[in-house]
Every structure is written in C-alpha cells, then in structure tokens.
C-alpha cells in the first residue's frame, strides 16, 4: 500500500512539474468539456424521457457507456500510441501481484480519468434519470475499458509465451469474460442491483486475464536490423523495410485505420447506412492522418541519418524535399490503396469527395510534416514499441485541425474553395521555415544526435 500511495503522489506531482500553467489550462479545458458533455447527455436523457426523440432512455444510457468505452480505448492509439506504464522494472525483486496492482492503480491516476469521472458525477447531478445505479455501472465500464486497453498494450509491446500455463489461464479468464458479456453486455443499462454483481464478476475475470497475460509475457520486443541484398529495390522500399520501428508503427496505424473502415463496411453491409455518417469524426481516418501523426510529423526523428546525409552533402531545400518524399511515398501508396479499395467497394457514392480530400490532405500535410520535423523535432528513443513522444503533440493537433477543414465540402460543395487557401498556407509555411533552416539545423542536430550523450 505504501508503494501505491507513494507512486500515486509522485505521478500527480509529475504532471505539474513542467509547463505548469499550460497543463493547468489543459486540465481546465478538460473539465469545461466534461461539463458541456454532461449537459448534452442530460439534455438527451430529458428529451428521451419526454418522448421527444426516437431514442429511449435505455438507448441514451447505452450510448453513454459506449461513448466511455470507445474514448478510453481510442485514446491509447490515436493520435499516437501511448505505451503501458512501466512503474517497476522487471529486474526488481517485487512480487508479480504487487507490481501488477501498483501499476494498475497508478495508471488510473491521470487527468484523463479525472475529467471522465467529473463528467459522470456532473451527469448524475444534472439528470434524475441517471441514477446512482447507472453511475456505478459506468465506473465499472471505465475499469473494464482500461483493463482491455492494458491487455492490448501487453500484446503490442511484449512477446508472449504462447505455450505457458499463464497464457492458458489468461485464455480461460478471457473466455469467462466473453461468455458473461455475451449473456449480459456491460454497456446495457442495469435495471437492478443484481446485474452489477454479474458485471463485477466479468470485470474480475478480465483483471485476472490481464494479470496472467502479463505473467505470460516475456521480455519487451527488441529492435533488430534488417538488410536488403537486392540492388533492384528502390530507396523508398529500403527506408520502409530497414527502419523497423517506423515500419511497425506505420503498419500498426494501417491496421487501426483498416479496423475503422472495416467497421463502417460491416455496418453498411448489414444496415445500408455508413457508420461514418453517424459518427462524423470517423471521417478523419479516411485520409492519411495516421501516416503523418504516427511517423512523418517527425520524419527526421525517424530518418535522422538520411537528414544528416543530405545536410552534409548539399543541404539544399530541394534535396530535403526529395528525401522526405522518398521516405513518405511507399507508406502513402499503401494508405491510398487501403482507402480507395474501401471507397470502390463500400462507399463509391462519395468517391469524388474522398479523392479530392485525399489529394488535398497529401498537399497540406506533406509540407506541414516537414515544418513539424524542423521546427519541433523529437528524439526517437526506446525499444521497438516505445511510441511515446515520437512526434509533436502540438503539430499533431494542428494536423488534425487542418484536416478537419478539408471535410467542409461535406456541408456544401462550394466549400471546396477552402482547399486552395489551406494548401497555399501550408506551402507558404514550408517556404518560410526552409528559409530559416540554417538557424533550425543546430537544434535538429542537438535533438537527434546529442540527446544520446
């Protein structure tokens, strides 16, 4: 218990040790958002209770729990992957159960969960239809989503001993959790307290599954170097293949995007309606955002030797643009093929918009990624799946905002006029930064090469 208390206090202090004012402002924005969303859901509950909408009270409560479940799991993977907390090194003589318990509790001590709990408490105070029973159930949903995210992180970051007894135990607990969820899904609103016992049993099975899965996990995945012996391979292929960390992150992003598009295709096949039209934010995944936010918003952080080669050979803007394009073109080609296969098979009615949006995204985010790589470089360090802080959060947010402008033609076709303005601004920013490159290159060298000293 002393270890948990000490770790929680240290984690809270670490949030405000640096950039105190900025993080306090972000926390304030989060609490304000919690208030806005709690009012929105309480209003929906009120309208549903009065019969003024097509949704029933039970459906609104169900959507509330699904909203919580989705946002917790998605925040671990988008706009960038967040690794699992490594509180106690595996070499320390600490029992596995104590390490697991400490890390599980400490992960819950974060501004994100603080804001989320405030959202639930405000919703409970605003809406009489959201009872204490529903509040407790939503907290169980939060814990379930968090443990699910931890299990996915274990699979991603560590090698699993598939034939160990711990993995078999984890599989049995996972089967018990799935069986209970099939019988009584946790996101369905509970009508009586006995259902919370069932949900608690399902959560307990999932926690035990996560514990056994961590015991079945071997050492972290390690970086290896792959060499290409074929002289006929293009430089773009070599940059994609030989940089395993960038390749794995890009593939991870492609899989994540394919999952979103696959979910939309499944809904369209069954209901004849697109999930993207119901949840407009998911349109972001149709564009090449994952390619840039995962890797190319820090292109010289990943391909620092390529940057140094260009810098020491010519150092001209044309060569920098050419080198960046060589690194980007194969991942963009894969991403474009994935997108246009989805459009051709499942969403051909929006084909013109998707093609225009995709071309516009490349013309905007390509220059923006080079600007981010020069102005706000990040040193890529750690093991193969150490994804944290590998690109600027500020420029990821800017990329997300700029890409949102390219979706304005969904409202009215005349808003395609926004495209030349946004593309022109991105190119202007690129030209301005390249003119100031001689002052930025020292920061690039210090970040990418002196950080190891």
From TrEMBL:
The keyword Cytoplasm does not apply. It comes from the Bacteria. The chain crosses the membrane at residues 24-45, 65-83, 104-126, 132-152, 164-182, 194-213, 249-269, 281-300, 320-345, 351-372, 393-411, 417-434. Keywords: Membrane, Transmembrane, Transmembrane helix. This is Uncharacterized protein.
């Amino acid at each position: 218990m002393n270890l948990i208390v000490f770790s929680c206090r240290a984690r809270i202090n670490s949030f405000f040790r640096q950039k105190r004012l900025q993080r306090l402002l972000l926390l304030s924005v989060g609490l304000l958002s919690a208030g806005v969303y709690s009012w929105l859901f309480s209003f929906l509950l009120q309208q549903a209770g009065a019969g003024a909408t097509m949704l029933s009270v039970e459906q609104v409560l169900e959507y509330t729990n699904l909203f919580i479940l989705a946002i917790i799991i998605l925040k671990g993977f988008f706009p960038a992957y967040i690794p699992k907390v490594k509180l106690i090194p595996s070499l320390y003589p600490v029992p596995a159960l104590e390490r697991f318990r400490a890390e599980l509790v400490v992960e819950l001590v974060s501004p994100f969960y603080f804001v989320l709990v405030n959202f639930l408490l405000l919703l409970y105070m605003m809406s009489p239809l959201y009872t204490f029973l529903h509040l407790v159930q939503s907290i169980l949903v939060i814990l379930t989503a968090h443990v699910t995210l931890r299990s996915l992180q274990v699979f991603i970051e560590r090698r699993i001993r598939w034939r160990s007894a711990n993995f078999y135990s984890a599989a049995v607990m996972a089967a018990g959790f799935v069986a209970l969820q099939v019988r009584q899904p946790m996101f369905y609103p509970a009508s009586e307290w006995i259902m919370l016992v069932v949900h608690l049993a399902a959560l307990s099975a999932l926690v035990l599954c996560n514990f056994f899965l961590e015991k079945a996990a071997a050492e972290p995945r390690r970086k290896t170097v792959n060499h290409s012996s074929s002289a006929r391979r293009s430089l773009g292929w070599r940059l994609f293949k030989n940089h395993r960390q960038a390749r794995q992150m890009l593939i991870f992003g492609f899989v994540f995007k394919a999952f979103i598009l696959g979910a939309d295709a499944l809904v369209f096949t069954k209901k004849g309606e697109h999930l993207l039209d119901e949840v407009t934010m998911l349109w972001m995944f149709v564009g090449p955002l994952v390619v840039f936010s995962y890797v190319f918003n820090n292109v010289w952080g990943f391909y620092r030797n390529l940057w140094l080669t260009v810098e020491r050979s010519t150092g001209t803007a044309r060569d920098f643009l050419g080198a960046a394009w060589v690194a980007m073109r194969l991942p963009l080609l894969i991403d474009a093929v994935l997108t246009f296969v989805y459009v051709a098979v499942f969403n051909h009615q929006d084909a013109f918009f998707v093609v225009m949006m995709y071309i516009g995204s490349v013309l905007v985010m390509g220059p923006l990624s080079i600007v981010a790589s020069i102005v706000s470089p990040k040193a890529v360090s750690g093991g193969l799946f150490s994804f944290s802080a590998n690109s600027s959060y500020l420029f990821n947010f800017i990329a997300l905002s700029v890409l949102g402008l390219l979706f304005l033609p969904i409202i009215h076709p005349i808003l395609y006029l926004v495209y030349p303005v946004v593309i022109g601004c991105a190119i202007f920013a690129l030209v301005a930064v390249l003119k100031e490159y001689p002052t930025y290159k020292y920061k690039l060298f210090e970040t990418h090469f002196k950080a190891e000293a």
